[in-house]
Amino acid sequence: MENVMGRSAAQRAGTGEKTLLAGIVTGQIAGLIMAVVVMAVFTIFLGKGPLYPVQVIGSALFGESALQGINVAAILAGLVLHQAGPSLLWGAIFGFAASRLNVKTPTDALKIGAALGILSMVDVYLIIPALFTALHGVDIWNREVPMFWDWAAHLVFGLSFALYPAVRRKLA
Q1: Nearest to residue 23, comparing CAs of 92, 105, 114?
Q2: Strand (E) positions, the chain?
Q3: Which long-range contacts (CB under 8 A, 24 or more apart) does 98-107 make?
Q4: Residue 115 is assigned to a structural domain of this protein
Q5: Residue 17 pLDDT
Q6: Within 13 A of 130's CA, how many CA atoms are on the CB side?
Q7: Residue 5: pLDDT above 60?
Q8: Which tens digit of pLDDT belongs to each residue from 69-103?
Q9: What is the mean pLDDT of residues 127-148?
């Protein structure tokens, strides 16, 4: 049975799936943009190597040893954890919100993305401290990443969702 707008339930469901997928893909892109920005910040402003922040993420699995020299296992783990964890989760949340709010323009995506970037700080304030402390007895992330730069990175992540309409068009 068709609704008033002439779209069947199957067509609406397909649109919702495409919107969710576009949100997830945009979340992956936003996660990579965020990573590049954080790498630049660590290199330019904090005097560390560009891979250091990825190693800090990898320290969730490897502890303090992840921060010694160039730890390839920690770098790979950090990248996978970042992209398969928060980037995937927040991208899916964005896709769900974009579907419900009928996001079509970069401006709309930017507004929702900025809110999402701020909301995603729940990771840094609640989830990461509990996880790191439970696994290693110390919150390595918040010790190694200055809060100002964490906020800036999460805002960059959120603002990167302005790319969503273009991603959605490419996937359509």
Answers
A1: 92
A2: none
A3: 98/19, 98/22, 98/23, 98/164, 99/15, 99/16, 99/19, 99/20, 99/23, 103/19, 103/164, 103/165, 104/165, 105/165, 106/162, 106/163, 106/164, 106/165, 106/166, 107/162
A4: yes
A5: 87
A6: 5
A7: no
A8: 999 999 999 999 999 999 999 999 999 999 999 99
A9: 97
Residue 43, amino acid: T
Which residues on neighbouring strands pair with residue 8, listed in sequence order? 2
How far is residue 67's CA from residue 64's CA, in Å, rounded to a whole number? 6
* Full residue range of the structural domain in which residue 45 is found: 13-171
What amino acid is encoded at 64 in this protein?
Answer: E
Cα–Cα–Cα angle for 115, 33, 163, rounded to 5 degrees: 60
Average pLDDT value for residue range 93-119:
97
Asked if 82 and 54 touch (Cβ cutoff 8 Å), the reply is: yes
Domain-embedded: residue 8: no
Q: Is 2 a member of any domain?
A: no
Overall domain count for the chain: 1
Q: What is the C-alpha to C-alpha distance for residues 139 and 132, in angstroms, rounded to an integer? A: 5
pLDDT at 3 over 70: no
Examine residue 86 and state whether it is found in any structural domain, yes or no: yes
Of 1, 44, 20, the residue nearest 99 (C-alpha):
20
Residue 4 Cα distances to 8, 94, 120, 147, angstroms = 9, 27, 37, 50
133's tokens: 């402390």
Across the range 49-64, mean pLDDT stands at 98
CA atoms within 13 A on the CB side of 71: 22
